[in-house]
Design a protein that fits this description.
Rossmann fold; 294 residues; 10 helices; 3-stranded antiparallel β-sheet; binds glutamic acid; 16% strand
């Protein structure tokens, strides 16, 4: 069986124990299934990505004993591919430009008639201020954020006009934060209410995490996406995009998060758990495996 996993770090800081766990899990799963483990550098955020962090990723992963085919896919080399897909989605009337800043969104979402603002995978669910403000038949505007019109996207996928119909499905072979596993289905109503119109092209990047991850998992023929539970909710966005773009939906294996002693999830800025720190202190890759429970 063709079995391909990947590890997709962003070079914006040192890899920590959580990254090591995710990478080793993806690597081990590929190895035990006679498959391949691929590496991808998610460096679309040019303001935060640094060449030295990228070098350190290669170094740490090699030290952990992981191997992957070269060349490594780097998202900064794929901007033209992302742009082409944005053209396609724009031509289908599924995107609209949004000029709201964070403050505008927070203010509109907490207007008295709206109740408490609801949060989705990308923060406050967009209240739709710009949704019908702009002509979608003109040429695609550049240099402005573009949002996916989730209602229009769902309608394009559904053959019925019932918004409580299932609009997407994926197989979860790991578990979401509330133990969700097996066949995960969701309706159009659910994604409108709990995700909303997400940004697919950010002003500063010309793309977004959601769009790039979907296109790159397909370009790298990934069959099993192994990643942290914090991305479980966002998977519904990815499944909608795969369906819109006629791309296969891989299986998902969301794994537990490695926490620090206080139970807090690890972040890039917490150097205390950096792999490089353990290396400097003389730890072995076997020690790292034992610490994360592999
Ligand atoms: N680049 C993302 C991160 O470093 C991972 C994305 C994914 O695995 O889908 O958190």
């Amino acid at each position: 069986m063709n079995f391909r996993t990947r590890f997709a770090p962003s070079p914006t800081g040192p890899l920590h124990l959580g990254h090591a766990f995710s990478a080793m899990l993806a690597h081990d799963l590929a190895a035990s299934n006679g498959g391949k483990f691929l590496l991808r550098i998610e460096d679309i955020d040019r303001s935060r990505s640094r060449a030295h962090w990228e070098d350190q990723i290669y170094d740490d992963l090699h030290w952990l004993g992981l191997q992957w085919p070269e060349p490594v896919l780097r998202q900064s080399d794929r901007l033209a591919a992302y742009d082409k897909v944005l053209d396609d989605l724009w031509a289908r009337g599924l995107l609209y430009p949004c000029t709201c800043n964070r403050k505008d969104i927070a203010a509109a979402a907490s207007a008295p008639q709206e109740g408490a603002p609801l949060h989705g995978p990308d923060g406050i669910i967009y209240p739709g201020t710009c949704r019908n403000r702009h002509d979608r038949t003109i040429e695609r505007p550049k240099g402005v954020p573009l949002r996916l019109d989730m209602t229009a996207a769902g309608r394009a996928l559904l053959e019925t006009d019932q918004s409580n119909a299932t609009v997407g499905t994926f197989q979860e072979a790991g578990a979401g934060p509330d133990g969700e596993t097996g066949t995960i289905e969701f309706t159009l109503d659910e994604i409108i209410n709990t995700i909303g119109d997400v940004v697919l092209s950010r002003r500063d990047m010309g793309t977004s995490y959601h769009l790039s991850v979907v296109l790159d998992d397909a370009a790298q023929d990934i069959t099993h996406v192994v990643r942290g539970q914090d991305l479980f909710e966002a998977t519904r966005i990815h499944v909608v995009l795969q369906a819109l773009l006629d791309l296969p939906t891989p299986q998902y294996i969301h794994h537990r998060l490695i926490r620090d002693d206080a139970g807090k999830r690890l972040a890039k800025r917490d150097d205390a758990q950096a792999i490089s720190k353990y290396r400097a202190e003389g730890a072995t890759p076997e020690d790292i495996r034992a610490i994360v429970g592999l």
